[in-house]
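Homework help board

Subject: predicted structure for assignment chain

Our instructor gave us this sequence and asked us to write out the predicted structure in token form, then describe one feature. I got the tokens but I'm not sure how to describe them. Can anyone check?
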Amino acid sequence: MFLSLAFATRSELGWDTSIDVFDDDGKRGYNIKVGVNAYRVLEVLSELGADAIIGRATRVFKVELNGEVHVLKDVWVEDGRELEHAIRDRLLQDVKRNHGKEKMDEVANYLLTPIDHWLVAVDGQEDHTAGVMIRGGIPPVKSWFKLTSRGVEGRPEQDNMAPMLSSDGGTKEKTEYIATRAPPHETKNIQHRRHYRIVFKEVAEPIWTLVKLSDVFIVLR
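My token output:
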């Protein structure tokens, strides 16, 4: 074990080598790589999904590149699932084929615009839960056993995905998150995942932060 630790590379020790850490006036800063580009993290927009025991471990950042601000999503997608930029392209092409280019452009106005995407690579190999993390050593399912859990009182699951508005119009953190618990269903299959990043041109504001009722109706329309 000591020899393994002594001679292991940074990636073998668990570091994500596609993220660089730097000193930013005494504070820790991060550059996240997406292909050939390195985006500087300005703010963490969401990391609730990363707390889940089982899931996609989604994190969303506000980032900057060449003076322009964008949004970067880092996610572990299931093997075989179509990637987000491909789904968007297929959707728009379907609208164009059935309704013409003008309608396609109209629909595109209501979708985020991907400007960069990447299947994260570690030491030249696509980052993968089975191929990289456990080096192909799949745990046997015959040794699985069922965990017992007690019931938890709380708000509906979808209501825990966003901050709760306080009486003064601000937001306050919730003390419980459904996402931190194991999912209620049982499975005998291990869902392997690959590491995916996508960068969007637009930086949006959550609807619950809007203070003008007219802006809320624009979103609903």
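Reply (TA_rk): Your tokens look well-formed. For the description, you could write something like this. The radius of gyration is 21 Å. That's the kind of observation they're looking for.
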